[in-house]
Backbone:
């Protein structure tokens, strides 16, 4: 069996979660998220963000979280602004448009949005009522390119959005990785302060399924549960989500798992950098995009699975390597060994 | 702690499932339902229905299954026909309409549909193009009232639908209970023959989550996966669904669990019948609706949780009792004991 | 040529409208409803309802008005309450559901809604968040059955809706006929006071096309024009709508036309009543539903077109006769003559 | 009063249309497009395209035509490909997305699409089922930039679309202008051969309202009328549309009007070219984009209305001038006079 660096959802879940599922399995609980584990998970999250006025909702996956949040927040004629690599733009089969809303795409080099990126979009959407009205700014942290937002950047964007009446929504499918990146000074507490809505991704950070949507803007909380149910996202056995986030939130397991993934990626990155390898983008989370020769790709492919991300020229391509909460030292070391031998 | 007869999703899942989740947890697998467990689960289901041309898709829950199937099958101007107690009509927050489709409701005493119920609806929808076009007949088995379809009934309905160009879709959230009811002569194989699409419900029959959608009509299979993804229902860790259905399909565990639930309900039903209790409807699955006095409701409520379903008169109400794969003899016997003592 | 009593949109439009179209034809005007005729029409309507805070929007037809109003006012999980004969339920090809919203149907004998009809619907929709949330009450005046609301009735319904947080929306496709009915004490001014939104129908009352949506509830006015554009209802040459409503609003032409239609219908009704004819419902607007013998239907069909509405028994049916702003005395007298001769 | 070159919908309609509306006004006709004028208009269009198997449907406006066609043709997960200046992308308030479908935008210099533009989009949408499926290519002729398709270009695009299973849909809001452009060799008959669906725009070419949708691909004709009704676009008095297209189709009035508009624009263009004026794009239809000094803009603005389209530098801007079926020689000559005097 080859070891896979293809993504961060190749394995099951952290053992603590399975143990808890076993331990609580036969306890009878209320359905639809009213179980005690879900209540406890929500309590833990609200403690961590230090905002008792936020509300937490647990759903199964990222596309689901994105489409429920966006369709519940926007009026029919309002639209989303996203950086061009945004997951909602490229990898969700038009899930947002299927709820009736346009996404305006902004080209940015690093997958992040700044006020200066958004201003021209606002300026070119003033032909009322012939154009959609931009109303929600969608960002990811870490981004789809593996980059991260710093506190100052996020504050500047948040201030801008508030001054323009735009909602700020952070896709946190890899929020753990973003916040535990060695170059990040951002905290979960600050994320909750600076966004209207964000979510904590579980699926890509040690859970079987699950994203915890946190609505900080109280105007957007009302009746939110109706939207979850209507989109088919309200699990009868909400305990499955509750138990997972309860375990992930205990003792910062969530952040420990993400930090581990980042560290493993950085080990490989640094080993490659030492050998002079260049990268498609300079990332500090669990996704790296080294540019290597076709020969090296072939050699590595004998032992490892990964995506060839982008052809650079006839002789080389960028590959994408993703590490996870469960990427062990052995795999990393074995990969590095080949690098050191071949380069 | 009171024992709950409120529903069949109060507990976690059958131990076999948790054991399998543990056993396979660290195996790296392809994402999005391409894992080997999902493939094995689909294979087992196709063997059981004896139709290699059917396609199986695993999703998280019933509302999700209903909205994905219906929105993928209908054109914008086509609508659904459902019996009035249909789950899609009453308990899914308008999930079907949210995808753009009307549901025409038919009043029937037992929650089942017959050709004679549908004919008047077709006849009153001929003002082209001013009315929606009925195109899909939605039935549940067992129904929301606990009743079941027999083979002859389903065959007659199926023949009728085919003669009228209507799709027949069976909501099988409680299909196990329907097929293992002591009065049912219907088999899974026949269900697959007689419907265009149906699903095998896991959530209410021993799984943590999961419904297995089976598309028998090959015209409706094309590109179906796009719809699953677009509606946010394609789990990155599809293994979670795959492992559950793999286990439930082994050695007929799925049917054993449902049969157990039915048997426990019948024990209570028969004990009450012997004491002269009447029922709101004559059901043979895991839902029963006995009519009892307010005093007895109070006594039972000291030890058990259940829904008071419908007020009958000043002195009595129908209650709803639901048993599950995990309803033990102790709870049933303790309940019966009270009945026998009080009546 | 047979004379048609099939509907009130068989002819073109009132001559004043054509004259105005000719007169202003070559004046250059701003597009999209910013022309001076639209502005004048809106001013006249606001004067007539004596509410300077209402806003008026002109669109092409009734289905369009209904779907734009409803989809702009409701959140995704909110639904409409309508009497069973409601146009939106039966004759608009699922236009409302196509925008994502369920309509709850209430059976009422006369096609009107009263608080006592609505209360049970509210009471049966309290299983949050598993059911749609009723939020808008849709009524028609005159109704699809030709009946009308009196001031007291509308006031009671309006008070009820406000006390329950429900919007009240009146479909006024035949509002002229409703208000000029001999039994109506309701005025346009009161309609504007008592509803959140209503519209003045032009198509069925002497215009070529056009309905004037009036939004009285200021909370619902914001950004409404975006919805009109998005649904394809913002005419580039808004003058076509503006000129028509400008003419209809001058000197109460709108009400004179409707009153004429009502009077013609009442002549026929009274003539039939004198001959002992019974009616499906007791209407006082331009729709009547006499029950006559198959033989008489045959005789009348030689000279007139009308719909056979409902079979009563083997020997007789109810027919539907509709008169219009342009139904002349000759047609009416000729019809009555046959009645008097044959009965 | 200043003369307006702002658009081609400033005036009412061609006198023939008003005369016909007057002439036929009191004839009773069937509703909803079954009137004899609509039938005649459809017959005339089918004769002109020489395709008896095409079907024609009359609706009120361009946004309406676009949203009905696209939403009726696509399955929920399928999307549209459009050039970046496409009307559906920028000027319809998200009308297409509101029906659930994404539009993929392609940057092209002249607003036209070629196979080489589309191939990369197809190649980057192969991650099934995680991405939308491109299925319909939307083009405008003349384009939003005033450019036109030649026969060879359209044939090449059509062949490409057919080879890839893509529908080709031509927005013909200004089809008359496109086909009568002095540089166009394309005919209406060829348009009907080479596209699956197109429409003949009336609103911008002498009608009060109205676009005639022509469906050439017989697979897409079935049940189309349901979509028109559902979107609120089926006029009760369909005669209004029928009479207009009947008149426009008689003796090629439609093309004469468009040719006139083009000629008037070319007169201005040529006069400006002679004076050395440069243009934003080299157009041969009724839209021109001359680049002139701010001073000249000021002088022209004293007598004429037009849009300042794009700032070029501190001293000059491109303006947009649009001529119409009704732009008289006087206005054109007076404009040219100023040009000749000032430059």
Residues:
């Amino acid at each position: 069996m080859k070891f896979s660096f293809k993504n961060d959802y190749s394995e099951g879940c952290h053992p603590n979660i399975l143990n808890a599922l076993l331990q609580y399995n036969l306890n009878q609980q209320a359905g639809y998220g009213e179980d005690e584990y879900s209540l406890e998970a929500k309590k833990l999250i609200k403690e961590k963000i230090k905002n008792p006025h936020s509300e937490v909702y647990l759903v199964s996956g990222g596309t689901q979280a994105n489409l429920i949040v966006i369709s519940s927040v926007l009026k029919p004629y309002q639209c989303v602004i996203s950086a061009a690599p945004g997951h909602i733009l490229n990898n969700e089969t038009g899930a947002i448009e299927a709820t009736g809303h346009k996404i305006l795409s902004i080209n940015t080099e690093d997958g992040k949005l700044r006020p200066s990126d958004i201003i021209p979009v606002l300026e070119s959407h003033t032909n009322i009522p012939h154009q959609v009205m931009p109303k929600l700014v969608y960002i990811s942290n870490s981004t789809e390119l593996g980059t991260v937002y710093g506190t100052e950047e996020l504050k500047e964007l948040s201030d801008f959005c508030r001054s323009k009446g735009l909602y700020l929504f952070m896709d946190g499918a890899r929020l753990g990785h973003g916040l535990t990146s060695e170059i990040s000074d951002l905290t979960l507490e600050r994320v909750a302060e600076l966004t209207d809505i964000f979510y904590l991704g579980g699926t890509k950070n040690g859970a079987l399924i699950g994203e915890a949507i946190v609505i900080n803007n109280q105007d957007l909380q009302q009746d939110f549960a109706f939207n979850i149910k209507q989109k088919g996202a309200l699990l009868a056995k909400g305990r499955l989500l509750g138990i997972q986030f309860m375990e992930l939130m205990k003792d910062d397991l969530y952040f420990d798992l993400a930090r581990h993934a980042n560290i493993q990626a950085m080990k490989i990155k640094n080993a490659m950098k030492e050998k002079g390898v260049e990268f498609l983008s300079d990332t500090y989370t669990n996704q790296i995009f080294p540019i290597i020769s076709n020969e090296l790709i072939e050699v590595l492919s004998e032992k490892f699975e990964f995506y060839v991300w982008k052809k650079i020229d006839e002789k080389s391509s960028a590959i994408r390597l993703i590490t996870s909460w469960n990427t062990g030292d052995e795999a990393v070391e074995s990969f590095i060994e080949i690098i050191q031998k071949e380069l």
In short: Chain D touches chain A at residues 76-77, 79, 90-94, 97-102, 105, 127, 129-132 (CB under 8 Å). The domain at 15-253 of chain D is CATH 3.40.640.10 (Aspartate Aminotransferase; domain 2). The CA atoms of residues 232 and 317 of chain D lie 41 Å apart. The two ends of chain D are 24 Å apart (CA to CA).
